[in-house]
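Course assignment 3, question 2. Fill in each field.
Student: A.L.
Task: Predict the tertiary structure for the chain below.
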Amino acid sequence: MPRRSYDDLLRGIGRKEFAPAYYFFGAEDILKDAAVRGLIDVALEPHERDFNLDQRSAAGLDAEGLHALVNTLPMMAARRVVVFREIEVWRRKSAARDTLDRYLANPSPDTLLILVESAPRNEEKKEKFDPDEALVARTIATDFEPMKAERVSRWIAHQAKERGITFGEGAAEHLAAATLYQLGTIQSELEKLATLPAGVPITRERVGELVGVRHGETVEDWVEAVFDGDPARALGLVKRVLGQSGMSGVRMVTAIGTALAGLRLARAHHDEGSRGGALERVLFARLTQLRPFGLGNWRTATRNWSRWAESWPAPRIRAATRAALEADMALKGTRVSDERGVITDLVLRLSPMASPTMREPARRGRSTATA
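Answer field:
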């Protein structure tokens, strides 16, 4: 069967169009859980669920138990819903997987089966996730890929409304950026915000206090300072950004690398004559085609790349790319003792005023420069 997008799946749920079997895979476990709840809500009335809803972990199922769950007839309802989670354990050959494959070849019309595969645990490999093609061929398969930043803000607004949270200007956008657009982290922060007194809009500053990342001090703000040619501000942000929850030197260098990739593309089109709004539109169209993982707000990114292109010729971009690669290698080395020192050296090497000495490879260990 053809793969469905998340939006296609939601439309089908809204129309109460059911398939015998669904397969959910990809990076966003939060959205998978929401889709499972949505299917259950439309497929079963609340009073039907005691006898007609089963949710199990695949790791605890043997072939006999699996067969019984998917072939049991509904009781006083039109259908049963069976949810198997963590089905990645069935990628290995097993008796349970053989039973599942035989069932999917001729699924019961009275059972709605939902197979949920957990997101890869390695953040750096999420964009390389490969679904189980045998399951894709026999189910309605949906890729729960990372949400674009613009949509994350809308998702936050929807979740906030359900919890009775009102955001002031820029507060939802800051929450998204401060949490690196990670839905699981955002959901946890929304639960905290829901405990605040109702009826009073939550300001951007209040979000910063609760999340621990003030406005103007996100990793995106730091990247902008680096590429804007403002080393004083960039150096001043190193310690603050590095000290944020979930942040690391490798994440900061990765953010620089992502910006350099976009800047390289922008400069290539700039050299061909594209400028201003025309350049931004070209870059946005390329992002739509490539759908890169880990990028923040696409509009903001393309606007930044477009304006940076003027002062970042190709040789400077190549030198910066080498510096970022060397910093990444230093941070991943077994003898690194000071992330802050490595990041500080990188900021100095990318500075427009950097001397040849500053452009030498960053040394592992403590830098002589201070933030």
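Instructor remarks: The chain has three domains: 6-144, 149-211, 219-350. The first strand starts at residue 21 and ends at 26.
Grade: pending
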